[in-house]
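Please go through the protein record below and explain what the tokens say about the fold. Record follows.
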Amino acid sequence: MVATPAWPPRSLPRLFVEAALSEGAAVSVEGSGANYLANVLRLKAGDALLLFNGRDGEWLARIVEPGRKRVTLTIAQATREQETVPDLWLAFAPIKKGRVDWLVEKAVELGVARLLPVITERTIVRDLNLERMRSHIVEAAEQCGRTALATIEAPARFGDWLAARPAGRTLYFADETGGPPFGEAIRPGPATILVGPEGGFTPDEAARVRAAPGAVPVSLGPRILRAETAALAAVTAWMATAGDW
């Protein structure tokens, strides 16, 4: 007996929309989304694609009325339920443009739920274009099949962020001075990973993190890692041990 191919095929285009999604609903896509569907992908009436909005899971939709500035679709059926996201936050010192874009994109692909830029004393980049960051989050979610969108907060100063940190959440501190291997220190439950700037934390900052409730200093191995590499290595180790891998 010939196997029936999975439907819908995973090769269909995926698009994030703000609209609520339910069977039979009509959805309009305008602006850059319409341009992508009509002019880049050149989709026609009857063509299928996958939609998600970060709340209602993933849905199969078909184009009813194509157009360069506005595309109308109808929702056919649900294809996946809303994912349960591992409760992992990534706190990081902003780094140079291009590298921070890559960091955000890969953190989303790995499954991080929340991104927290933290301004330390040695942080060189003090401003982030949050709209650009959110665009990278959406694009990464479209590409990697996520149905939930990671959130990104406005940059906060190190002292303010540390003082406002919620209780009951383990803080894994990538400590350049050493600590137990990260894989051996991971505990179950909500977690935040904190990674410093390109120049590292100052001694005072490192001491304040170590003294914070729930903080666990950890080592990321014998080699010196760039800031973005350290962040993604830590996320990978956590996801493999306590996440959904």
About this structure: Residues 88-242 form a domain with the Alpha/beta knot fold (CATH 3.40.1280.10). Helices lie at 31-40, 99-110, 130-144, 158-164, 182-185, 203-211, 227-242.
